[in-house]
Specification:
By secondary structure, the chain is mainly alpha-helical. The chain is built from 5 helices and 2 strands; from the N terminus they run ααααββα. A two-stranded antiparallel sheet has the order 1-2.
Length: 158
């Protein structure tokens, strides 16, 4: 599981680098699917990852809107700001944490749900991979090669 988080972080950084060569209006353009745009989706990925880790630690959620971070640099800086806390939590993961329970309200309904910690972390991994696929489609729509989603040759298995 730790390897898949490291994979997601590498791919996210690759997308941030990819975005540097794309005009800001393309990054902000409203698109079909996902969070509705490239930069909004990258913001969403970092926000969701951090929010779930905060919930697992019993810390307050990050609740600022995308509009406060509507530039590549701001989204990239926010992701980098969140990363040390997320990485510390992931790297301190132990098998005993798998079955701990987290009870949280669902934002859309206010109903309370209980999840296992291991389920939440696997959701966070799959969530980012899902959105990376959407970014790849949008990259091709603007005539650019997407970031490789290949886990092999990323140096994650020393």
């Amino acid at each position: 599981m730790k390897t898949l988080f490291q994979y997601n972080w590498q791919v996210r950084d690759d997308w941030f680098s990819w975005c540097e060569a794309v005009a800001e209006d393309e990054l902000l353009k409203t698109r079909t699917g996902g969070m509705g745009g490239i930069l909004k989706t990258l913001f969403h990925i970092a926000d969701v990852e951090y929010s779930w880790i905060c919930a697992l630690q019993g810390n307050p959620d990050f609740a600022e809107p995308f509009e406060s971070y509507s530039s590549l640099r701001k989204v990239q800086d926010l992701s980098r700001k969140f990363h040390p806390e997320v990485e510390w939590f992931i790297m301190s993961w132990s098998s005993e944490m798998e079955v701990r329970e987290l009870t949280v309200p669902r934002r859309s309904t206010g109903e309370w749900y209980t999840y296992k910690f291991g389920e939440v972390l696997r959701h966070v991994i799959a969530h980012e991979i899902h959105h990376i696929g959407q970014l790849s489609i949008w990259a091709r729509e603007i005539g650019r090669e997407p970031v490789s989603a290949n886990l092999i040759r990323r140096g994650l298995f020393g």
